[in-house]
Design brief:
The structure holds two protein chains of two kinds.
Chain A: E1 2-5, E2 19-23, E3 28-33, H1 41-49, E4 54-57, H2 62-75, H3 81-102, H4 105-126, H5 130-136, H6 143-160, H7 166-178, H8 188-191, H9 199-206, H10 208-216, H11 224-232, H12 253-268, H13 279-289, H14 296-307
Antiparallel strand pairs in A: 1-4, 2-3
Chain B: H1 2-17, E1 50-52, E2 59-64, E3 76-86, E4 89-94, E5 103-108, E6 113-125, E7 128-135, H2 144-149
Antiparallel strand pairs in B: 1-3, 2-3, 2-5, 3-4, 4-7, 5-6, 6-7
Classes of the chains: A mainly alpha, B alpha+beta.
């Protein structure tokens, strides 16, 4: 089951997907509304009054739900960029969550390609500003949130850095969506551990860039730049990163972008072992790291992009 | 048999004609001059005893070839330096980074030719990347390794 936010639903005579509600202590899904049955504003209001903000669709219906949301965005040109992005995000959540649950790499790569295309289209067409987007991002921590946030920052940063070709931006977005694909094989017990990781657990975590690379490298639909985002996003310009300990000039440009997007999202979100840092503190950290761990020019672009307001 | 021997001799000659451009950082040089058995605490996991290579044993030839669609590789031979070797795999130095899962051919000084798969790679310095690889098939202990190490 994939969660869908009640606020993303509109009254209609029919929707193209069944809606479920979780019921009882075990949270068993129960059919709330069949796809052929009208959904009224009153139904939606009642749900919110009862404090129910989330319904669910089955994995099989995620594409229909995603299409439904995107159609809403496309039909209304008056939706502001941040709101447009928020809807896109919900659509992406449905598709990516289902793809990740399938553990099928073909499906994950396909879904990330679609989502990246929609994301770049939304960002470029609406001239979205990083700060505005940041405000509407879900700052919870989970696999989907990190994928989506990192990819959004990577695309916005790439754009600010002067990469403006739509094809290239879509590739960067997809590469960033895939950057942690190697973590799919790591148990949640380790990924969500609150205490300090043991040496063995740290070693397991550190293998995710290489295992992600191994997963994707034999494919013909993933480019070298995207593979480097997966393999090199923990490399640091001063050689202190992993897995290879490369220097700046040896790290692919897209991987340097991805490294910044990855850490920016990690620091601005709660993690199992610490709370989110304030945005100003995060920018200060990056400022201090410019030309050391991270690419100096890219950091300047990031700071300028975050400080820019519409 | 004689055909195999002459092929091995030919391959062994190849190794000594290939230039090796690896530059071992001065501070790490002593690490690559050790002899004998590699202590078990220096390797993450090992199925077979592992030996340091020294002298001419260190010379080896690596033939890179394309493994991944997105990484074009022309078939090309490089001189590399073997750091240590076991029946199951080896560690060597190369001028450029290699990537996990890449497959290549390796010829060691005894003339033994084997297919390797790259497991990991890390930068030690300019023009010096340390690479861990496993052999597609464990080496035959009775012949080529015996020649290499002088012991069966």
């Amino acid at each position: 089951m994939v969660p869908v936010a009640v606020r993303t639903l509109l009254p209609s005579t029919e929707v193209q997907f069944d809606l479920y509600i979780l019921h009882g202590e075990g949270g068993q899904p129960r059919l709330f509304r069949h796809r052929d049955y009208p959904l009224s504003q009153e139904d939606l209001d009642k749900l919110l009054e009862r404090g129910i903000h989330t319904l669910y669709v089955s994995y099989g219906d995620t594409k229909s739900y995603s299409d439904y949301l995107l159609a809403r965005v496309m039909e209304d040109e008056n939706i502001p960029p941040a709101k447009r992005y928020e809807v896109l995000r919900e659509a992406a959540r449905a598709v990516l969550t289902a793809a990740l649950a399938s553990k099928n790499v073909d499906r994950v790569v396909g879904a990330t390609g679609d989502v990246s295309g929609q994301m770049v289209g939304t960002i470029c067409s609406s001239n979205a500003v990083l700060f505005d987007i940041f405000q509407v991002m879900a700052h919870d921590y989970g696999t989907f949130a990190h994928m989506m946030n990192s990819a959004t920052y990577a695309v916005l940063l790439a754009y600010a850095f002067g990469i403006s070709g739509e094809r290239e931006l879509i590739e960067i977005g997809q590469g960033a969506l895939l950057h942690d694909v190697g973590k799919l094989d790591i148990s949640q017990k380790i990924l969500a551990k609150r205490d300090k990781l043991s040496q063995d657990e740290t070693q397991i975590i550190k293998q995710h860039p290489a295992s992600g690379f191994r997963k994707l490298a034999p494919r013909t639909d993933v480019s070298w730049g995207q593979l480097m985002m997966v393999y090199q996003h923990h490399e640091r310009c001063d050689g202190r990163g992993y897995p290879a300990g490369l220097l700046r000039s040896e790290i692919h440009e897209w991987a340097r972008l991805c490294a910044i997007a990855d850490v920016f999202d990690a620091l601005t979100n709660d993690r199992s072992y610490r709370n989110a840092a304030a945005l100003d503190d995060v920018l200060q950290y990056f400022d201090a790291q410019a030309g050391k761990g991270f690419d100096e020019e890219m950091i300047r672009c990031l700071i300028a992009a975050v400080k820019r307001r519409n | 048999m004689s055909h195999c021997s002459s092929e091995a001799a030919e391959l062994a000659r190849l190794i000594f004609t290939l230039p090796c451009h690896v530059k071992i950082p001065e501070k790490l040089r002593a690490n690559f001059e050790r002899r004998g058995m590699v202590p078990s605490d220096e390797v993450e996991s090992q199925q077979f005893p592992r030996m340091y290579c020294h002298g001419d044993e260190r010379r080896a030839a690596l033939e890179l070839r394309q493994t991944f669609p997105a990484l074009p590789r022309k078939s090309q031979w490089f001189g590399v330096q073997l750091a240590d070797i076991s029946r199951g795999g080896c560690r060597f130095l190369h001028v450029d980074p290699l990537y996990p899962g890449e497959q290549s051919r390796l010829v060691i000084s005894s003339g033994t030719r084997t297919v390797i798969e790259i497991l990991w790679c890390r930068r030690l310095g300019e023009q010096c990347f340390e690479v861990g690889a496993k052999f597609a098939q464990p080496l035959d202990p009775s012949t080529r390794l015996a020649q290499l190490f002088g012991t069966p």
